[in-house]
Structure formats: C-alpha cells, structure tokens
Design a protein that fits this description.
The chain is of the alpha/beta class. 29% of the residues lie in helices and 25% in strands. The protein has six helices and seven strands. Strands 3-2-1-4-5-7-6 form a seven-stranded mixed beta sheet, with helices on both faces. It is globular, with a radius of gyration of 16 Å.
Length: 189
C-alpha cells in the first residue's frame, strides 16, 4: 500500500488521526497544513457526518470539493495500521480517546504495550505522536505505559494545550466539566 498515492498531489508529509470524533481537529489541521496529507479515521457515523458537514455546505453535496489533502478511513483504524508500510507516517494523532476504563477493555487502547510496536513500525524515526486525554485513569495509564517503553521518547507533557494543537469539542466538554486535560508529544526514536 502506498498511502501517498491516495492524494491527487503527493503530500510532503503524511499524518494520521485515529478517532477524529466531530472532525474539528482534522479539518483545522488540513487547512493549516496544506502540504501535509491527513488520513482521518473514524468508525462512528455521527462523527463522519459531523466532519463532512464542516466541509460540505447544505445543498452542496453534489459539487463541494473535499480538501485535497484530507482522506477519510471509515473502518477500524487497526485495519489501516496493519496495511500501512514501514516508516510512512510523519505524525500521528490520538486525541481524547475513549478511556476504556474497565480492565477487560484495556486491550482496546492504542496506548498499550502490545500496540506500541505496531505504531512504531509505521512512524518514521523522529515522527511525532500526539496524545491528549482528560480522563485521570487514562492519563495515569499513558504515563505508566509510555514510561516503561523504549520506542518513543517524551517530547512534551503538559496540562496546557500547546500551540499548533487545534481545540476539539471533547476538550471543551472536559474543561466545562472541570477536568484537566493532559497533552503529550511522543517522538519515535
């Protein structure tokens, strides 16, 4: 699979967002970085419709153009990850994922010791993986798992949304509820 070939013009960098929710972050990143190709993954129909409604004006479904540097993957992101070639991604986003708080659900987390080698496989050396969460259990999990591995180094760990990180509706919801989000940047070694 050659993911760069999915774009009309080959992008200078390839980015992947896993679970884009309402799509606000993916749309903002695509607009701010026209040279980067962004593959946005989401399986939930409401999220896909939300992203498309941001791009396509009412009544313009037949003629509206989707940004040339944005592609959607509407299947399970794990299937796409298995298809991607080695060291093809320059950036990966995992923003406010479902925390899967029950022990039996932990295997569904992307920040997981068994998943990290697969993510490291598709990220170029020096590539950035951005993770954000407002859930205290997930925050502790990220700190524990990422502190016990050697595939990534911590580039950033903060409770203030960094510059260049467009806000999301999940972040806004967390802030309204008084939860403190954490933002991490992990760099592929």
């Amino acid at each position: 699979m050659d993911p760069g070939a999915a774009f009309a013009e080959r992008p200078s960098a390839l980015w992947l967002e896993v679970g884009f929710g309402g799509g606000e972050h993916a749309v903002a990143q695509a607009a701010a970085h026209p040279d980067a190709g962004l593959i946005a993954c989401e399986v939930f129909e409401n999220g896909i419709c939300s992203l498309l409604s941001r791009l396509v004006p009412e009544g313009g479904e037949a003629t509206a153009a989707v940004p040339p540097n944005l592609r959607l993957w509407t299947e399970d992101a794990r299937h796409l990850l298995a298809l991607l070639p080695v060291a093809c991604l320059d950036r990966l986003f995992l923003l406010f994922p479902d925390p899967w708080p029950k022990a039996r659900h932990a295997k569904r987390r992307f920040v997981h010791p068994l998943v990290l080698p697969g993510l490291a496989r598709i990220l170029k050396p020096g590539a950035e993986w951005r993770v954000a969460s407002d859930d205290p259990t997930y925050q502790a999990w990220v700190s524990e798992v990422m502190g016990a591995q050697s595939l990534f180094r911590i580039g950033l760990s903060t409770s203030q949304r960094p510059d260049g990180w467009p806000p999301t509706r999940y972040e806004a919801k967390a802030l309204r509820a008084g939860r403190v989000p954490m933002y991490w940047s992990f760099i592929r070694v």
